[in-house]
Amino acid sequence: MKKNKLEVIPLIDDFSQWLAEADKSDNTIKTYRAVLNQFHEWLLSEGMDLNHLKKKDVQQYITYLEAQNKSLATVEKAFSTISMFARFLKKLDVVQDIKRKQKDKKNQEAPDSLTLDECNHLLAEVKKDGNPRDIAIVYVLLHTGIRVSELCGLNQDDINLTTNQSSLTVHESRGEKGRTIPLSKEVKYYLEKYITSQNNEKEFLFESNFHQRITPRAVQYMLKKYNVTPHKLRHTFCNQLVQKGIDIAVVAELAGHLDINVTKKYLKSPVQNLDSAIKQAFS
């Protein structure tokens, strides 16, 4: 017997509200809703629903889309939407290790990231401006790779600045623990400077110019004057770890990637590095 469409619509509405609270744009939310509704319609036709989503349901849907000769972009958009929905549901297991066709390797490009010189220039510029909060934000994004929404969600008690084990803890939605990321000496130093300068007794860590929790758009606006985005700093973090030879599974864990194939995009190496790679491995 077919399930009633109306019984899960509130769930999609709740998902949309969660996206809005994460400061997603109206167009992004509209796209997510449209894709999720298509997935919902397919689930209903198969006698399933969003309320009881299982990994096999996601795999069957991706396989169905590919059998319909949908473009790789369409399949990836569906998977990304379902992955975000799984994050909202706190059911990340339903999207782990989902098999799908991969893009032709010759068309793959590693995400755009900063060079070492560009990183140094960025850090010099933000330090020159002298805002302790902005300096701390740039260092946190660049040295932890957390998402801008995760940065804005940080609270004072998510930061551990003990001498030997400094770290920050990123929480998933609804307050549940996500992952803990060790802090570099520089991040620790500039976080301490920012926290000391604020003398802030509020729950949240980063404060806006209006004395509220800072928003992703405010962070994006601040970074715009340095000609970078939060995404680019996150890509730089992942790329630097991969280039230093850090195991891809470790990079995925630190970045909070649900799908290790996302992390593998950073493995694409310039041709000029191949010779040095062989010498490093076998000399």
TrEMBL record:
Q: Which GO terms describe its biological process?
A: DNA integration; DNA recombination
Pfam families under this entry? Phage_int_SAM_1, Phage_integrase
Q: Which residues form a coiled coil?
A: none
Matching CDD domains, A to Z? Answer: DNA_BRE_C
Tyr recombinase domain sequence ranges = 109-279
Name the PROSITE patterns for this protein: CB, TYR_RECOMBINASE
Q: Locate the Core-binding (CB) domain: which residues?
A: 6-90
Record keywords: Amino-acid biosynthesis included? no
Q: Name one GO molecular function term.
A: DNA binding
The UniProt keyword set, sorted, is: DNA integration, DNA recombination, DNA-binding
Which family does this protein fall into?
A: Belongs to the 'phage' integrase family.
Query: What protein does this entry describe?
Result: Integrase/recombinase XerD
- Report the source organism: Priestia aryabhattai (Bacillus aryabhattai)
